[in-house]
Amino acid sequence: MSEKKKSPYIIPIGPTHPALKEPVMFTFEMEGEQVSSVDFSPGQTHRGIEWMGMRRNPVQIVHLTDRICGICGVVHTLSFSLAVEQIADIQVPERADYIRVILHEFERIQSHLLWAGVAAHELGFDSLLHLTWRVREQAMDVIENLTGNRVNYGIVQVGGVRRDIVPEQHRIIEECLTTYEGLLEKLLNLFLNDRTIAMRCRDCGVLSRKDAIELCTVGPTSRASGVNMDLRQDYPYAAYGDLDVRAILPDQHMGETRGDVYDRIVVRLLEVGQSCGIIRQCLSEMPAGEITAEPKLAKLLAICKKATGEAIGRVEAPRGECLHYVRMDGKESPTSWKVKASSYSNLMSWIPMLRGEQIADIPIIVASIDPCLSCTDRVAVVRSGSRSILTKDDLHRLSVEKTRRLQR
Amino acid sequence: MTEMVLSPEQVMERFTARFGTGIREAHIRERREGKKKVPHYTLWIDLDRELLRPAIQALIEIRYPHLSVIGANDLGDSIRLLYIFSIQYGEVKGEYMVTLAVTLPKNDLSVPTISDLIPGAVFGEREKQEFLGVKVTGIPDNRRLFLPEDFPEGVYPWRKDETGLPDDMIKELWRSKRPTDRPVPPAGEKELCELPAEGTPPKEGSS
What percent of chain A stands above pLDDT 90? Predict the structure, then answer.
């Protein structure tokens, strides 16, 4: 950039990130306050998990997949297991399918509530952040009760699950669901009927339906743009074939679809209520029986070692489609393993979303797709060759100030 | 875009009828789970490299597909790329996976870009270039994606041949032991903590 040139100036944000605790490197070209173009480079914490997996056996990989994501402890293990089960032709007991779905949905509840809190924080509503994160605790407690862990659940195994849900636990689950169903109205009211949230989020970070489809986005990000896709509806895996799940689209609640940050809030909050319904249905329809096709790990490993073929396991994670492709050639470890997390598909949608928006809107737009990479500390602003560092706090302050200005 | 719902057999028929001998291998895999055993399907189609783009066009004619990811196998003397799509999403229990696979010999690892047909594919194509050393011709963005800038050229982490990760780049943390060239830290006798007498409440501020 030449010394004389005043605009556009470049703002690099990252490799750690202003909005979430996730590292990604952004480069913004600015025209005054407006973003004129966006570029980003992920991979700041690439750990080579696929490389590691191709040198381990499926029983070991299950523990690796549990640790791919700190929030989604079920989805990666579940997708991987679904793929291996198809290759080795393992029939999962029906009860295990239901237990998998129950945990899967609790994961969605806690993830969406966590996200709602982050969104509130980015907008400067820290009391709302504390409220949502406090109510999220109940879901975490239930997950801990069911699996033994708050994170890295270690519950899904190839062939089934590792712990049953006993009748005494039904009461705890019921209590939690009742609380959330009672709370949902309040949360919807707090988020959607707040004038300031509407001012900050309506028509902000818009992703058109066409872009959502062409950029291969998934999950709440694409549903908020009016794309009718939800694996739980479209692709009957685990017990979802028995359940009657329908994709939640913003126009069902708002009467229209604008594809902005606001619509993404609508979709995620409504999905919390939907998940409660799914868990209820699972609890009442759950069949009795075994919870795993093969409880003896040595035997399970022997079955996996003999398996040849390739398969795809895919599930609807809180952020959208999570897909694992596995190919096994009768050896101990898979020949190929490709993990496609949901955010992998969603990151490209940042580019059309951020174009034309202001610096202070960057945190909430970036957070609105609920990116799952990993965190941020400083932002360097290069203006006409001189360089100053904006910390995460500065960016957050800019966002809060914008909210305050609007409230005046 | 047509909005009719095709069965997996009909989708497969379209491909076999249109591409004939260009299809090397094709089969439909069915899987049933849950109590009602509602099936879901995956169509596996292996075809010639020249047919990749026409095949994706054929898919777009059915309905605009969702590109999930591009997977890959290193098969020794060749690399097989799998373009994993899903079509007919939005149809209740009517979505299928369609996997279009092309095999590239290692002496000619090039494949045409599909990013003009499906803009979101750029992400996966960049990843395949850096992790497998495949050359995507016509790719609009040739940069690396996940690997760091200082990662050496000509090393491709997913390859299983001599261009894969060399042993000296692998850090085996489990092998690392306590360094031996450092003094042993002075670890004195642990002090016993005083237990409060039975019945007395713990003092304010102490734990």
Answer: 66
Q: Could you tell me the pTM of the whole model?
A: 0.87
Q: What ipTM was estimated for this complex?
A: 0.85
Q: Rounded distance, CA A311 to CA A321, Å?
A: 16
Rounded to an integer, what distance in angstroms lies between the CA atom of residue B169 and that of residue A103? 38
pLDDT band at A6 (very low <50, low <70, confident <90, very high): low
Q: Identify which of B44, B66, B122 has the shortest CB distance to residue A229.
A: B66
Domain A49-340 in CATH 1.10.540.10? no
pLDDT band at B204 (very low <50, low <70, confident <90, very high): low
Nearest residue of A to residue B86, measured between CA atoms: A235
Which amino acid does the sequence have at A12? P
Rounded Cα–Cα distance for residues A97 and A237 (Å) = 9
Q: Which fold has domain B8-175?
A: Beta Polymerase; domain 2 (3.30.460)
| B-chain residue closest to A326, CA distance | B71
Domain boundaries, chain A: 9-45+357-407, 49-340
Which residues of chain B does A316 touch, with a Cβ-Cβ cutoff of 8 Å?
A: none
Q: How far apart are CA B100 and CA B187, in angstroms?
A: 62
Q: What does the block give as tokens for A207?
A: 């992703």
B103 CA to chain A: closest CA distance, Å? 15
Which residues share a beta bridge with B30? B41
Domain map of chain B by residue range? 8-175
C-alpha distances in angstroms, A378 versus A18, A364, A384?
A: 8, 17, 19
pLDDT above 80: residue A196? yes
Q: How far is Cα B95 from Cα A235, in angstroms, rounded to an integer?
A: 6
The H or E element spanning position A34 is: strand A34-41
pLDDT band at A377 (very low <50, low <70, confident <90, very high): very low
pLDDT confidence bin for A44, thresholds 50/70/90: confident
- Work out the angle at residue B82's Cα, subtended by the Cα atoms of residues B81 and B87, and round it to the nearest 5 degrees: 155
Q: Report pLDDT for A367.
A: 86
Structure tokens at A402: 């914008």
